[in-house]
């Protein structure tokens, strides 16, 4: 299970996946879009923390079929397409 955290940073919003993979984005929505893209084919969750470090919301992921928290709205129509792809084995 993968856990990706989005934390406030002095230059914007840091996406923490593993040590060494910690890009910083100026806007929170950009950080969320990046994290959703990184987690698109893995199960786990994305945790968005507020300025005080408390959990603001969670975006649950379950492989290619995403279960997105009700308060999360994709930034682009492409996200809707990419999360609804059917996997053929």
Present the secondary structure layout.
Layout: E1 2-9, E2 12-16, E3 24-25, H1 28-38, E4 44-49, E5 55-62, E6 65-66, H2 77-83
Parallel strand pairs: 1-4
Antiparallel strand pairs: 1-2, 2-3, 4-5, 5-6
Report on the structure:
- The protein has 89 residues and is α+β, with helices and mostly antiparallel strands.
- The chain has one domain.
- It is 20% helix and 35% strand.
- The radius of gyration is 13 Å and the shape is globular.
- The two termini are 21 Å apart.
- The C terminus is likely disordered.
How much of the residues is beta strand, in percent? 25-35%
Shape: globular
Strand sequence of the main sheet, in spatial order?
3-2-1-4-5-6
Number of strands: 6
Low-confidence stretches: 67-71, 77-89
Work out the helicity level: 10-25%
Q: Could you give a short description of this structure?
A:
This protein is of the alpha+beta class and 89 residues long. It contains two helices and six strands, in the order βββαβββα.
Jot down its keywords:
89 residues; alpha+beta; six-stranded mixed beta sheet; 2 helices; globular; disordered C terminus
